[in-house]
Amino acid sequence: MKKADKAEELFKSGLNCAQSVILAFAGDLGVDAETSKRIARGFGSGMATGDTCGAVSGGIMAISLFVIDEGDAGAAKKKTYELAREFKKRFSEEAGSLMCRNILGYDVNDPESMKSIPADKLPRVVCGRYVNIAAGILEDMLM
Hints:
It is a single chain. By secondary structure, the chain is mainly α. Helices cover about 70% and strands about 0% of the residues.
């Protein structure tokens, strides 16, 4: 199964967007599923405030796990930042933004506006697509 499809399936099972993306790669990157889910828990819905998309946050976590230090922390940081920039650029090009509220077209942090969002526009329905996009980009870049 492709990582993008696995991430989307994880999202549909009830995990948040960040958890779904990192968990799709966790086993390949030497991190157990439970630790991955716990680390990424607070990053869904744009860190619960509509900021940076959780799929992006989960992707950056996966990139950070992918790059091995090998005794040169400076080189590892440089490589991590290069990959993070490329990932964010590609995600933004496909999704139209890096910000949850911009991607969705509303602010998940505003309870009043959330009351008027049609059911087919809620994060649980639409965000699987962005999880798939993020994991697909990562799979192309890392695997």
